Amino acid sequence: MASAYIHKGIGYWLTMLLALVILLFGLWLFVGGVWLISLGGSPYYGFAGALLIITSVLMFRGQQVAIWVYALAFLFTLIWALYESGFNGWAQVPRLLGPVIMFILVLCTTPVLRALGPTQWPRRVETTAASSVVVILALALATPLLMQHGSAVAQSASATPTVGTVPAATAGEDWPVYGGTNLEARYSTLDEITPDNVGKLTKVWEYRTGDLPQNLPDNGALKGKYSPETTPIKIGSSLYLCSARDIIISVDALSGREIWRYDPKISDSYVPYGATCRGVSYYAVPNAPPDQACGTRIIEGTMDARLLAVDAKTGKPCADFGSGGEVSLMKGIGMSQPGWYGENVAPVIVRNVVVVGGQVQDGMDENAPSGVIRGYDAQSGRFLWAWDMGNPGSTAEPQPGHVYTRGTPNMWTAAAGDDQLGYVYVPLGNSSVDYFGGNRKDFENKYNSSVVAIDVTTGKPVWNFQTVHYDVWDYDLGSQPSLVNFPTDNGTVPALILSSKQGEIYVLDRRTGKPLAPVEERPVPNTGSVEPDKLSKTQPFSGYANVVGPVIKESDMWGVTLLDQLYCRIQFRQANYFGQYTPPSLDKPFIEYPSYNGGSDWGSVAVDEKDGILVVNYNNMANYDELLTRDEANKRGWRAIDDLGGASNGSDEEAAVQKGAPYANLINSGWKVPGLGTLCTQPPYGGIRAIDLKTGKTLWDHPLGDARANGPFGLPTFLPVRIGTPNNGGSLITASGLVFIAATTDNVFRAFDIRTGKQVWSTQLPAGGQANPMTYSIDGKQVVAIFAGGHHFMKTPVGDYLEVYGLPDDQKSTGEDQSADARTTSQAAQQPG
Q: Which candidate, 426, 429, 529, 537, places its Cα nearest to that of 475?
């Protein structure tokens, strides 16, 4: 009777369902595993798949030995997992989590299989099985602990940094420039908020711009293209910021009350990759009387290529600037489509000269607008000079019928300026075709992915330093340079610190461009390249510091389960990968690691000269790319379209159309598993590091961001477990020894003790925090601000929130009694972030 009941009851059908699931898993692993073996990969998956198939067949037949076969498969898996990855918790997630769950389910079928089988289950086996369950559950419970601590890369947390000198120019009560000052160190002398009291930090006020895609007349057609990245500036009692669509806004710094706004009315068609405005600039006319209209002004570059000036007090356009308060930046640019040329950063102002570059839609068309750098008079808007690398003998505007040299490397990110030297430091990107260089001119190859010092009095280059030779990886410079007094054995030297997407951090004498720390030219691969005779045989590696991860291996492939991990391992074996700078190839896909969103991007570094510490946050991801012939790209229907400057390719991947070049490129950014959305390489995907400013040695290094808002299919896991998420946006350092940063995809704003790397405060933001924070003092009280605007590329929630945090009045401190010892023993300290 019992056997008949089992045959008809729920237990029987659940056992058969489990057997079917195991069979499907086994078939996937076996077929894929044989494929992987044929590619020279790990034999584990094929053998494990065969054992699962045998297990399922035995379960269908009602034989108890199925449990023993699965136990053998699990033991095999456990030994293999520990052999490949040791006790790295994140690495073991796809290897052990699914098998552990399945083992528990298999053991639960014991009563059914015992009733179906011809013999009774031995008592000793039941004891063994029960013991196994306890062990497996212990492993499962230990997994979060392993993930929390096994991936930390803390180094010398108690190391003492080399002390430099007090910065020549710093931000304190005000934050007058995008990066604090023109030196762009992202450092403040304010010290009221300390590691001891930061745990008491609370929201003081919140301001909303109202610039959201759902509020647009077209009902949110730009919803998938919002990425504000805004950092306000503060002068006197006012904050000045721009919204995603270039609306300039003045807000009371004490209360958050809106004072005025100026809407330049940007057409949606001019939004390039995303609706982005990182900041605005402030300018005071020399010797202007207090009541003069536009005696102080806010200057902004717009996505539709206009340079605007409005009165800082009223928001009204400055009549003495250009034509009615604006200057067209399209003069001399020539043919362009909406969204192909514009501004998204705060212009830099050096010696009364406003210097602008231009974001050029790259990867679309070889005949793209020029990357020309131009200078304009900050008071009148009058054109002063142009640096067009294709016309080095002239700094004038082109004559009628002529244009600036097309398709040249451009500056889409922010520059830095030295008023004393009269130089502006321009970080350049690539030519308009990123993944093929065969059609480039010699001057393009000279300046691509370089930082160039330009004399603002003449508009002529003084020196340049190239970070990538013959760049065919889209390693354009996204980071704004930081200008510091660099400590050496012979005193301080005026220096420039530049971080790159490939993870190198260079230190240069900003007077001459000569490296102050070793730069080594090392051999790099050219196997598989479509242009091996033109690729550089070496690339410049910094001997100072870098945030480059180790060369990836097949065993570094990741996933939620063994199934998608196997998929990634097959992809790895099918691609060309010979380490960093693996060139684009036509015979196979190629792996780009770090990716174009690797290393350090537009958030840049922050520098504390007083204590001699540099802080950098970074990404640690790969791209999986496929170079295609022009004929193949045409067959796929790829074309550079006229309205938004994007690509039509019929997939979620990115298409670098590269019209005019013989090849296009299909980009799997981050190397994601199709449909699932998880990354093929294992965590951490991002981190934050403190570096001794003088020596370049790491003081501490931690994964940045947790898994709460991330998961398969884009669904949040709600797990507050440190994973190290992708991050965009930089950090802020204060004189009290705090590092503030958002940037991560978990939408959290954090503070770290700069001496130890311990997280001492955090708060959940209402949207993604892909922006640089800033700090200022108003009525004697220090506050910290971050714009939570979200980011379409980072897939974080879009918002329009300016969040401002401060201490309760009874927690205020002058900071005078905050000793170095007190800074390192914060009562609010938590685990490293």
A: 429
773 φψ region: left (φ > 0), alpha (ψ -120 to 50), beta (else): beta
| Intervals of CATH 2.140.10.10 along the chain | 187-549+594-622+670-823
Burial of 815 (0-12, 13-18, 19+ CB in 10 A): middle
- Phi and psi (nearest 5°) for 99? -60, -35
- Is there a contact between 563 and 24 (Cβ–Cβ < 8 Å)? no
Instruction: Measure CA 530 to chain center.
Output: 29
d(CA 397, CA 308): 20
**In the structure, how many helices (H) and strands (E) does the chain have?**
12, 41
Give the position of tokens 């009628």: 400
Averaged pLDDT, 466-494: 95
CATH 3.50.50.60 fits 187-549+594-622+670-823, yes or no: no
Q: Residues 141, 684: contact at Cβ < 8 Å?
A: no
Packed helices 44-60 and 562-574: angle between N→C axes, nearest 10 degrees? 150
Residues 6+ apart with CB under 8 A from 123: none
**Torsion angle in degrees (nearest 10) through CA of 301, 302, 304, 310:** -90
Read off the DSSP letter of residue 811. Answer: G
Give per-residue pLDDT as tens, 369-392: 999 999 999 999 999 999 999 999
**Residue among 101, 96, 105 at smallest CA distance from 143:** 96
CB 482 within 8 A of CB 186: yes
The bridge status of strand 296-301 relative to strand 450-455 is unpaired
- Taking the C-alpha atoms of residue 459 and residue 377, their distance in angstroms, rounded to an integer, is 12
Asked if 256 contacts 206 with a C-beta cutoff of 8 angstroms, the reply is yes
Catalytic residue among 304, 474, 608, 625: 474
Helical H runs in 109-179?
110-116, 123-150
The model carries a pTM of 0.90
Known catalytic membership, residue 474? yes
Task: Using CB atoms within 10 Å of the CB of residue 651, give its burial: 0 to 12 exposed, 13 to 18 middle, 19+ buried.
Answer: exposed
Q: How far apart are CA 729 and CA 787, in angstroms?
A: 11
Is pLDDT at 132 greater than 70 in this prediction?
no
Query: Residue 830: pLDDT above 90?
Result: no
User: How far apart (Å, rounded) are the C-alpha atoms in residues 434 and 366?
Assistant: 9
Q: At residue 617, what are phi and psi to the nearest 5 degrees?
A: -105, 150
Which tens digit of pLDDT belongs to each residue from 19-76? 999 999 999 999 999 999 999 999 999 999 999 999 999 999 888 899 999 999 999 9
Q: How far apart are the C-alpha atoms of 164 and 166, rounded to whole Å?
A: 7
